Structures
1.
Amino acid sequence: MPHLLILALPVPPPALATLGKLLEERVIETPYGPVGPWARRACTACDAELWILPYFGAPTRTDPRATLWAAKDLGVQRILAVEGMVGLDHLLTRGDMVLPIDYIDWTKHQPTTFFEKTGAGYISQKPPFCPDISAAIRDHLPQARPAIYLGDEGPRHETAAEARMFQQWGAHVRGLNLVPETYLAKELELCFAAVGIITAHGADRERARGQGEVRQATRQVLEAIPRILASLPDPPTCGCNHLQDSARQRGVLSPNWKEWS
Ligand SMILES: [Zn+2]
């Protein structure tokens, strides 16, 4: 089955060569608008084909539902996002890696469900991210610290007062691209997990000065991705692909996911 890699931080195109030979690029039409270009790579080290989608935050980004609908349409089951994040926790600095294990949704103007009419979006957020992909990230990037992610929509940065408030809520990092994507992915029974690379400090701290740490961490993540994807259990053991079984059995959703709304 093909995988999807969402790159929510700048990556120089030559660095993507480690993910396999480029086969094609295309834009996918969806009921929520066009999304892309998507790049398909023959990732032999991943033991699967890999779609790659550059992905940057609001306000110009595509409707997140379009991204997930297109992924499902392409036959993708597993989505791994790599995002540049703000380190709210004072122990985090530029170039550190994190593994989001839970989230707080602080978005205000994003779609919250595919199912505004059917009520099929009552889906447990335990666990918030796919256990299979998260376990593989832990195995191959053990330096990625477990972190609680605060999903914001920007584009402005947080204020110092907000940074302190988010810390009191228990958030370690802030970002723009995992929420609502992670819970919309669940609605389509897709696996979704992420690796974060700290690119900046929260507004209550001194600005972080860069000396190539982010570039180095990005390279380490890209090198680990084929091993992460190749080590995923087949078939999946996480249960993400059965999250709508109950809705299907009750007749709320049809067997054809393209009829879901
Ligand atoms: Zn999963």
2.
Amino acid sequence: MFDFSDTDSGISYESTEDEIEINTPTYSLSITDPIEAVMKPENILENFVEVGGRRYLNDVTVKNYYYLPSDQKEVERTYDRNHIDKIIWGGNYSAPVSDKLSLGASVLDVGCGAGAWITNMASEYPVSVFVGIDIAPLFPENYPPNAAFIKCNILDGLPFPDNTFDFVRQAFVIICMNWQLWKEKVVEELIRVTKPGGYIEIMDTNGAFINPGIVSKKINNFWERFYKAGINRASGTDVIETFNEFKDKVIVAPIELRTLYYGKKAGRVGEALLKIILGAYRAMKIIFIHIMRITEEEFEQMLIDFEKECNEIMLSKTRYRAIIQKRSG
Ligand SMILES: C[S@@+](CC[C@H](N)C(=O)[O-])C[C@H]1O[C@@H](n2cnc3c(N)ncnc32)[C@H](O)[C@@H]1O
């Protein structure tokens, strides 16, 4: 865990109107190799399987391609990211729910991972109740008594009655999930389980680097190919447009954006963000190697060059929070 406070960054994290356009390339590509490596018949009874020194979820019922490892390294990375996000955004959430949380609200974290947000929030708001759901059973062993975790696949519907939660949030799930599946199977469920007048908040990344250098351009290109291969990383604008299709049920606020700067030039937050993104790339090593058709040595060199580039130019990308209120009547 990084041990510095909000005041250390030296960067002001202000909203910007910038959105990123993804140019879809014209070639097609299969990325099934890494997941096939995990889902071999001999592994059928295993919850997790190790590939290339990392542990992956081995669950044929997942339906979407979940490409990040489910292991201790990834748990630590998500706890660090949660901590930095709190600094960048000035809080764990942006929806206007603080009064409700202080008085006692019911809260759902969809795709909660190892529970960094839930445990943090449950300690901060002891009279509210927090439920985290995820397909990967990576939940913490110790957590506050007002928190609970349930293993489930969000593509099978959310296992709660209508109008259950005052606040429903989902973070960094869209970047990991087929966009079409999320649109078809998840959006209406998020609305259904939210109480009338309650809020939904979606946080995710806008993916591409802004004004990239030589190496970050290659990484942007990798993501375009990844995108083309069916792992969608929709922008915040797409999320807003999707919820706007349910205008009879919800009110959609203007998207909130933060620009993230990577590397030493952006102070200690920039250094922390660089460490977190390098961790994400390492977590995706087999996919990088497969899609970029590079060797392991070339991949390691690319990360060294990326780190150098981040420390030379002011490399940035944006993160968004979409806030949606369920109509009362
Ligand atoms: C990048 S992690 C984000 C975790 C957490 N929200 C955070 O911000 O640290 C994406 C999470 O989505 C979960 N996930 C992916 N597909 C899922 C599905 N179909 N049902 C439930 N959870 C899913 C993964 O297991 C993983 O924990």
